[in-house]
Amino acid sequence: MSGMGKTGAARGRPRAFDRDAALAAATRLFWERGFEATSVGELTEAMGIRPGSLYAAFGDKRALFEEVVHAYRRSPVGAFIGRALQEEPTAHRAFARILREAAAVYPDPSHPAGCLVISAATNVTAQDAGVATFLRGLREANLTAFRDRLRTAQREGELPSGADPAALAGYFAAVVQGMSQRARDGADAAELTAVAELAMAVWPAHAPDGPAAPG
């Protein structure tokens, strides 16, 4: 009897799985197809788990997606914008680096093209509108970080007093989002690097007798 009990317990025990590997598989699916077009069945097949394990480990599909996005934003592929803003000594260098790295990251064939946060909520239904709102909030946070960095640059004299930090932040956000979409449409790193270089040409210049151009 005791042997049968142990066998029954073993059979009833949930199958162990590699959570990080399962999350990586879910990330790839959401990144390739978007939230709406990715079914729970496709997720569980790619993750190598049963639906019950998905719900037990991650919650529902939306909760899994949000965990995927947060993990993505901590990864080198998803964190390059924040790193550039924090690490570069001037705003000019920070934005040049953001665009240069976007040109390399977005078309990289080792992962789906573009940016997960920019593209994953296309064509969501009304019942999943919260997903679109969630991603929009993350994009707005990036825009706010852009504005803050540019306003600081203006206070410190890097940008001329006549520059408009809010408009410049919106411009760079639009360029980054456009580069993501171009990558999804097949643009390669060379094309996107050319876009990045052209985009930086709008950087506001000081008058000839003003501060030196940023490095």
UniProtKB/TrEMBL annotation:
Residue ranges occupied by any HTH tetR-type domain in the UniProt entry: 16-76
Keyword Transferase: no
Superkingdom per UniProt: Bacteria
Keywords assigned: DNA-binding, Transcription, Transcription regulation
Residues within the DNA-binding region(s): 39-58
PROSITE patterns to which the protein is assigned, alphabetical: HTH_TETR_2
Entry-linked Gene3D superfamilies: Homeodomain-like, Tetracycline Repressor, domain 2
Name recorded for this polypeptide: TetR/AcrR family transcriptional regulator
